[in-house]
Amino acid sequence: MREITVGVVAPAYVNVPLWVAQQCGFLERRGLRATERILGTTHGVTNALRDGEVDIALTAPEGSVADAVAGGPLRVVAGLIDRPPLSMIAIPAHRAFSDLRGGRIGTSSLTEGTRHVAERMLAAHGLAYPDDYDFALEGSHIERWKALQAGTIDAALQMIPYDEIATDAGYTNLGPVTEDFALNAACINNHSAERAVVSPFLQALAEAAEWFRGNIEESAAIAAARTSVESRYALRACQALAADGVIPQDLRPGHAAFAAAVEALRRGGLIPAETPDPAAAALDFSYLG
Questions:
Q1: Same-domain pairing of 103 and 35
Q2: I need a labelling partner for 186 at 20 to 30 A (CA). Which of 45, 92, 175, 261 fits?
Q3: Where are the beta strands (DSSP E) in the chain?
Q4: What is the pLDDT of residue 139?
């Protein structure tokens, strides 16, 4: 049995296909055993992949895209989330997006992931960074929930099921993310990745994602056990994750979702605006078979 390490930000529900693959034997049947390494931030996962500390990363793709465009070895080999299952949660005192003016918005990274999704969402409601608000680096959605409870931030994008947990606790749900954005992807380091490992790993993930769509209640039980979240929240989270457009078919990210991530990188100056085709540098779907 080949042991591999998979870098993740947190035990987040976007990784349900991985948990299903582990629990239901989809990995084992391919001679693999995957251990998660929780790294707390999206840039932390990207750094671990670059440094060879993990074999595969399930994380925001922006860091790997920026690395590839700069001539580095990181590549995006599959898409896991095309429509982020996130909602903007604010402390109870705030009732509208306009109340966030002058506030602090919690995020998992200042260069990847929820930062870009939050910036796009706030811009759609007339708030521009950095004139109207600040970002606060708080880590994963679990840490952002703690920060919201402590009142050290004004709002943050919260992953399922923490959005519902917060709403039930009296926090303000300003609404879900509704646009496509490549939030979670499988990424590798070309200097160390082995096709004989990466391809069967992705095949197991794809098979697990398909099984998940047809076995929501069983998947919710697996997720609840992994996260110690109440069963009712785990079930609703898995139902939201199974909605059309969230997990891309065959783990190939949609054009609009990937384009939105690239646009965010360009707008933030993280890749040159004149880069002709970041997809050609960063995407390698040959591992999917």
A1: no
A2: 175
A3: 2-8, 32-38, 56-59, 74-81, 86-90, 103-107, 133-137, 155-159, 172-176, 184-189
A4: 87
**Per-residue confidence band for 254, with pLDDT thresholds at 50, 70 and 90:** very high
Distance CA 181, CA 257 (A): 4
Q: The pTM is what?
A: 0.93
Residue of 198, 189, 192, 195 whose CA lies nearest to 67 = 189
- Alpha-carbon radius of gyration of the chain: 18
Chosen domain end from 176, 200, 222: 176
User: Over the range 19-45, which residues count as b (16 or more CB within 10 Å of their CB) and which as e?
Assistant: bbbbbbebbeebebebebeebbbbbbb
Strands (E) across 172-238 are located at 172-176, 184-189
Structurally, how many domains does the chain consist of? Answer: 2
Q: Do residue 187 and residue 281 come from a single domain?
A: yes
- Tens digit of pLDDT for each residue in 135-156? 999 989 999 999 999 999 999 9
Choose the final residue of a domain: 113, 147, 176: 176
